[in-house]
């Protein structure tokens, strides 16, 4: 069914001005013109808009999201399905969590990963879904047990993806994890998978690693790069302390909502796991060649 630009804006939640800008700048979709001369958006155009919206909502820059969708055209309908034709793309997962239905949670997550490439699902659906679950818990609509059930199922799925990404790449590895006092793990594990898929050698340390032990592991592995996360001001301070412990010959890269607070002691990764993994692989390529 074709929609006018106003109807498309209401259906997707993207303003008319933004729709025109995306059409003009990125040429991802080309609305047909009706007899009256007005733009009309078909199902394919709406799917592309929803895919674009999902990536932008996950923190991608519009230009980067457009490049991603152009490079992986098969992901457009998949991400549209992840975004859902309904207004709430996470309703099924939230409902399954509220019912404490592990089988349904696993099925929903597996279905999403079957729809598109790993990186697209991580940034376009999984990370926003986890944010939504956190908000449901904060509002009292989910218990800690229900939220943890989802988190543990996701962690098992990511661990399997990490193993499936292949054996350890040659060269000194990048250490990925969080220091003592920081418990956020899923984003770090998701990044470790994306980095390995991008060809970056990684060792996943997990959470609650004392800075001194991290430093010792880095010396044993010959690692000069570490990845951690900062979601609160306190996390940012802990990341800075890790960088100070590791010393000036090491680089600490930081993701998470408070990552900018760690600069200049650390290097922010940005808010797209896929883009960060690719950028890191490109920057460290010569280092790995020399290893």
From TrEMBL:
Listed SUPFAM superfamilies: Cobalamin (vitamin B12)-binding domain, Putative DNA-binding domain
InterPro entries named in the record: Cbl-bd_cap, Cobalamin-bd_sf, DNA-bd_dom_put_sf, MerR-type_HTH_dom, MerR_fam, Meth_synthase_dom
Keyword Transcription: yes
Molecular functions (GO terms): cobalamin binding; DNA binding; DNA-binding transcription factor activity; metal ion binding
Keywords tagged on the record: DNA-binding, Repressor, Transcription, Transcription regulation
Domain HTH merR-type, chain residue ranges per copy: 2-71
Keyword DNA-binding applies: yes
Sequence intervals crossing the membrane: none
PANTHER family: MERR-FAMILY TRANSCRIPTIONAL REGULATOR (PTHR30204:SF69), REDOX-CYCLING DRUG-SENSING TRANSCRIPTIONAL ACTIVATOR SOXR (PTHR30204)
Protein name, UniProt field: B12 binding protein
Species annotation: Propionicimonas paludicola
């Amino acid at each position: 069914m074709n929609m006018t630009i106003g109807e498309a804006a209401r259906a997707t939640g993207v303003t008319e001005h933004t729709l025109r800008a995306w059409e003009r700048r990125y040429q991802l979709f080309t609305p047909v013109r009706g007899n009256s001369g007005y733009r009309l958006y078909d199902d394919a155009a709406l799917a592309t808009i929803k895919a674009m919206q999902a990536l932008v909502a996950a923190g991608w820059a519009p230009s980067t999201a457009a490049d991603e969708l152009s490079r992986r055209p098969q992901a457009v309908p998949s991400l549209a399905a992840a975004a859902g034709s309904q207004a709430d793309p996470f309703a099924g997962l939230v409902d399954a969590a509220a019912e404490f239905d592990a089988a349904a949670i696993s099925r929903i997550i597996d279905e999403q990963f079957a729809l598109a490439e790993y990186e697209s699902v991580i940034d376009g659906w999984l990370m926003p879904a986890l944010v939504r679950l956190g908000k449901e818990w904060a509002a009292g609509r989910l218990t800690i047990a229900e939220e943890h059930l989802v988190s543990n199922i996701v962690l098992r799925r990511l661990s399997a993806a990490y193993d499936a990404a292949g054996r350890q790449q040659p060269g000194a590895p990048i250490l990925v994890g969080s220091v003592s006092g920081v418990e956020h793990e899923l984003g770090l594990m998701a990044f470790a998978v994306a980095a390995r898929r991008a060809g970056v050698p990684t060792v996943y340390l997990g959470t609650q690693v004392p800075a001194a032990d991290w430093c010792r592991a880095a010396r044993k592995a010959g690692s000069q790069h570490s990845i951690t996360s900062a979601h609160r001001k306190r996390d940012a301070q802990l990341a800075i302390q890790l960088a100070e412990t590791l010393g000036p010959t090491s680089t600490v890269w930081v993701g998470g909502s408070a990552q900018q607070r760690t600069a200049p002691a650390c290097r922010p990764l940005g808010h797209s796991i896929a883009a960060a993994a690719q950028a890191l692989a490109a920057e460290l390529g010569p280092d790995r060649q020399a290893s």
